[in-house]
Each structure stands twice: as C-alpha cells, then as structure tokens.
Amino acid sequence: MDPSCMVFHYGQEMFEGLKAYKTEDDRILLFRPDKNIERANNTNDRLCIPRIPEEDFLQALKEIVKVDAAWIPTNPGTSLYIRPFIIATDPFLGVRPSSTYKFIIILSPVGAYYPEGLNPVKIWIEDEYVRAVRGGLGEAKAGANYVASLKAQVKAHDAGYSQVLWLDGVERKYIEEVGAMNIFFKINGVVVTPVLNGSILPGVTRSSCIELCKSWGYQVEERKISADELFTAAKSGELEEVWGTGTAAVVSPVGNLRKGDVVAQIGNGGIGELSQKLYDTVTGIQLGKIAGPEGWVVEVL
Ligand SMILES: *Cc1c(COP(=O)(O)O)cnc(C)c1O
Questions:
Q1: Distance (Å, rounded) from C-alpha 203 to C-alpha 39?
Q2: Number of domains in the chain
Q3: Distances in Å between the alpha carbon of 181 and those of 104, 251, 252, 295?
Q4: Are residues 223 and 100 in the same domain?
Q5: Residue 273 needs a FRET pair 20 to 30 A away by CA distance; which of 6, 13, 21, 117 works?
Q6: Are 127 and 273 part of one and the same domain?
Q7: Could you say which of 112, 135, 167 is where a domain stops?
Q8: How many A from CA of 71 to the centre of ligand 1?
Q9: Cα–ligand 1 centroid distance for 243 (angstroms)
Q10: Does residue 289 form part of some domain?
Q11: For position 67, what pLDDT does the model report?
C-alpha cells in the first residue's frame, strides 16, 4: 500500500465482527448476519464510505467461510471469527472522502472465551476520558472509537480492572457501554439497559438479549441510567445482576463495579441466573441446538 493511503492519515475505516459456528451434524451457521450487514451500511453512511449491497455482502461472507470451512473449530465454545473491514486507499493528503476502498474479510479460529467457565469481570467506570458523544462516531463500528478508548483502558488495567464502562460524553453521569460490549442490569427484577442514544454501539447481541428477555416475560427498560442510580441500587441490594453482551463473549457477567473510590460488589462471585440463561440460550441457538426466532441463524453449508 502507498504510505499516503488516506486510511493511515484520516482514519476512514470501518469494521464488523461476527462468527461462524459448526453444528454437531456438520452444518455451518452464521448468527443474524443481516443485522451486521445493516449496521455495516449505517457505519459506511456515517464515514462517507459507499454502501455495499446487502446480497453481495452476505455472499462474500458465505463464500469465504466455505473456502475456509476446515478452519472452523468444533470444541465447545469455539468458532470462526469473521472480521470484515473497509479501508480508504486513495494515495492523497487532504481531508475528503476517499474515492477508492478495499473491502477485506479476514477470519480466525477462536477458542472458548471462558476456558474456566463464566467468571465475573471487574469493571472500571471511567469519569475522566469519554469514548463518544451524540453526533460523533459512537454508534458506528469504526476503528476511530477504539483509539479514543485506549488511554482509559490502560488506566483501568493499571488499577487491576479488565474493562472500562463509559459514561455519556457530555455530563459524564449516565452509563453508555463497556469497551466492546453493551451493558445490562437486573434491578429489582426489571432488566435495564441504556437506550440507544446516538453514542452507543447497537449490538446484535444486545438486541437479541432484549428480545429473549421480553419473550420470557421480563419487563425490559431501554432508558437513561445514571451511575448514581446503580450504586444506590447496589447498596440497597436491588442490583441483582450485571452483564455485558457482545459477539466475542456473548454474555459476560460483571462482579465488581468501581467509580472513583466507590466499589459495588454484585452477586456472590458467580454468574447470575438470568445471565446464565441468556448465555445458554444464545449459544444454543448459534450452535443449532435450540430453535431461535425466525431468521436468527443462516446456513452457509
Ligand atoms: C461490536 C461492539 C459491541 C457489541 O456488538 P455485537 O454486535 O453484539 O458484537 C458493543 N460495543 C462496541 C463499542 C462494539 O464495537
């Protein structure tokens, strides 16, 4: 590539992330690829990258997974990670949308996210740096969001925390999401998750968990939720479960939340009942063991 390629200088880049799963009867399944493709084109619109026709995108995914089908691992919890991405390739210095791009898909077998089971993670609520603001890139899956997150991630790691929980970029008061996961709370029996406000990434796992919880009869609230409300609920014992959702881990239980000097311990060091049920159900659907809602799995082979 030419060192002057625009992606290197102005960050015009988008990506997606999904997985292919091998079933026990040797079929290969994708989980809701239409949602990833729809989101990819929303990201493209935001970054002035041309849209990719949905059928072409899906065909590209299926074809490359077929070519590399032998790389799909079969041990429990493993899968083939799929990373489509687009980069701006005009060799040009000067700020404008590129007129040439490369659309590339890379793949990698991935191991079980939790070799020792679903251990709760410790989360650092960041009150200095912000990830995104409304009107910015927060709801786009862009590399630029991740470079903005590094400073706080290093800070959290240095303090012994594995993930950053972002607050809204204006008041630094309301919960947005975790590094590469959306976040859910079960408060007094009600499932609560931050409403998609323009600076939160609309996760496919997030929307799947909302649909499942509703189908099981839970009251689900997508709304603003402040860090103060969480710590108050934790204190009174009403914060029953906290979990993150994303393609990589599917459901990731949270056992510890820290903001400044205040720490909230959630649960008793294990995974909550609803978090476990969501994990079992989503992974069961992905592996073709449980019939999910219409259209959630797409067969490649
Ligand atoms: C990809 C991503 C998620 C999770 O989305 P899924 O579609 O569920 O994998 C959440 N937050 C951010 C910032 C992301 O980039």
A1: 9
A2: 2
A3: 23, 9, 9, 23
A4: no
A5: 21
A6: yes
A7: 112
A8: 24
A9: 14
A10: no
A11: 97
